[in-house]
Amino acid sequence: MALEQELNERLTRAIKGRDPQTADALRMLKSRLQERRTAKGFSGQVDDALVLDVIGAYRKQLQKALVEFEKVGERGAAQVAQLRFEIALCEGYLPKGLDDTALRDLVRERLASLGIADAKQVGRLVGDVMKTHKGQVEAGDVKRVAEELLRG
After folding, report:
1. Cβ-Cβ contacts under 8 Å for 139 (sequence gap 6 or more)
2. What CA–CA distance (Å, rounded) separates 48 from 64?
3. pLDDT of 20-30, one tens digit each?
4. Most buried residue, 88, 104, 110, 120, by most Cβ within 10 Å?
């Protein structure tokens, strides 16, 4: 089943089941998808890859907001709970990321195959890894691990 169709069916079930928290989160995802679909210059197909990209971008935005609301403390407690719920919902659709050990092994392998021995070339490594493992790793994590490995 196409991912967009799955989102629509889950939204319908949430509305019928009177689950406003899930329904609101799914409506927001559908709004983001519609924004991408109607964006200037977009002429491609809405496929699962695009839906996953939208969900990933939304999750990243939620994670940034979560940090800010956690700083507020007690006053932001309700928003923190809602953000955590929405992040978990998004992560249910996204592919599982690599754990730290797998990421280290991947970076070590790509460093050797690209012949990178200088920290100034880490950007090239990050680009290479992100092309093949988009959605599974964060660019910042790849950079951090590469720099650690190059330092020795």
Report:
1. 126, 130
2. 24
3. 999 999 999 99
4. 110
User: Which residues neighbour 84 within 8 Å (Cβ) at sequence distance 6 or greater?
Assistant: 66
49-56 average pLDDT score:
83
Q: Are residues 87 and 105 in the same domain?
A: no
83 residue type, one letter? L
Number of domains making up the chain? 2
Task: Look up tokens 């940034």; give the residue.
Answer: 64
Please give the residue range of the domain that contains residue 10.
Answer: 3-93
Q: What is the mean pLDDT of residues 116-127?
A: 79
Indicate if 20 and 83 belong to the same structural domain.
yes
State the Cα–Cα distance between residues 40 and 15, nearest whole angstrom: 31
Residue 53, SS3?
helix
Residues written for the chain: 152
Centroid of chain to Cα 102: 18
Residues 53 and 105 both lie in one domain: no
Question: What pTM was computed for the model?
Answer: 0.69
